[in-house]
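Pilot study result, target chain (457 residues):
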Amino acid sequence: MAVTNIHPIRTTLSKAIAYIMNPDKTEKGLYINSFNCSANFEKAAEEFMQIRSLGSGRGTVLAQHIYQSFHGKEVTPEQAIKIGEELAERFLKGKFQYIIATHVDKDNIHNHIIFNNISLEDFKSFEYTENRGGKSWENLRSTSDELCRENGISVIKNPQENKGKCYYEWQQDTQGKSWKSKLRNAIDETIMQSDSFDDFLEKIRAKNIECIYTPQNVIKIKFRMEGQERFSRGRTLGWYYDEPQIRKRIEQYLFLKTGISGRTVRTKIIDTSRDVFQTSKGLLNWAEIKNMQEVSRLINFLSTHQIHSEQELESRATSTYNNRMIIVTQLNKTQGQIDDLSDRIKLLRAYKKYKPVYDGYRQSGMSKKYKKENASAIDKYESVVKNLTELYPDKKLPSIEALERERTALIAQRTEMNESYKRIAAELKEIEFAQTSLSEYLKNIDRTQHRNNGTLE
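Predicted structure:
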């Protein structure tokens, strides 16, 4: 799991940056990166202040410091800095300069991210645009948890729901008998048939499934099948049945069908046509060097994968995405089997636990006094027997040990498939990054040339 926090820096900015970049903590600077600023702590602080000088109403905060710590040896340093960079990209949305450093000198690997409090985009402060009411930490925690799930890292359990699960693309149960299993199957099917989230809502309701969507509430979406007593919240069906993930899954299926991705991929290509770069030769020179470094990475990626045109890049993306969907389908099936076995094991254990109580009730001649004293256990036993009868109509119950062995074997299979999924997902991320980098670099050239031509005229 990853623990996160964020706090403002009001003084000694260069010392704070120097601390996180300590060579003794970062394998001699190996695990350090930066976005839109120098990787030298003194220069980075100066560049932060250059951008700060262009803003107004700046207040007393110079920068923000994010801390992200992983449990034990759950990640490698390489994984940690990649997750930290993704956290910075999603949380800061490419608007703020930052330095990231991964410290490996302690038992728990952790990231430090220091970012400018003033935006490159509009020169307004992070406090004003992103942290009104002091709630930025909630968004930070949510984004960090999302990344942990995507990378198969445990998350801190939600005390309200008492569950925390590792990441899988779609978690469905194809063999279960419960309302949750049936709902998952119906939602999965409808997602694959939908062209948008609104279309999904219309189609799921057309299947006689009540769906209440209230985006203004904490519980945004919930479902109830015909005959179901209570609503099931999307979140309790599994992380990938909550509203934001349903939207993402629809986009992913659309990409598979149309070849058009709905994802926004952020790159490190800097728009040098903006005024801040045109009025500062030093900053412009730094930005152009950074852009050339990104182009070099792009050329190296295309050469390594023997991709010679934009069409080949698009074809490779579609092919990789298809492979990803195949492994996800396999993971879904295996996860469904594991969940089904877990449910059955739980029922059999409850049956074993409460049967002696029920036997005592029968031996008492169905005594009202005995029932009153053991009402809860008797009710649970009767409910368990009802569920087991549906699962095993011939009343031949398997042993718990046999089901546990079967589940252990499936978990081993799931682990292998998850490693394959991670490799494919990493390749797809590289491809999407290459597509966006190429597009942004060409656009940047056009914008800069247009601006220069306009200046000459």
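One observation from the pilot: The chain has three domains: 2-150, 179-258, 264-457. A full batch analysis is planned for the follow-on phase.
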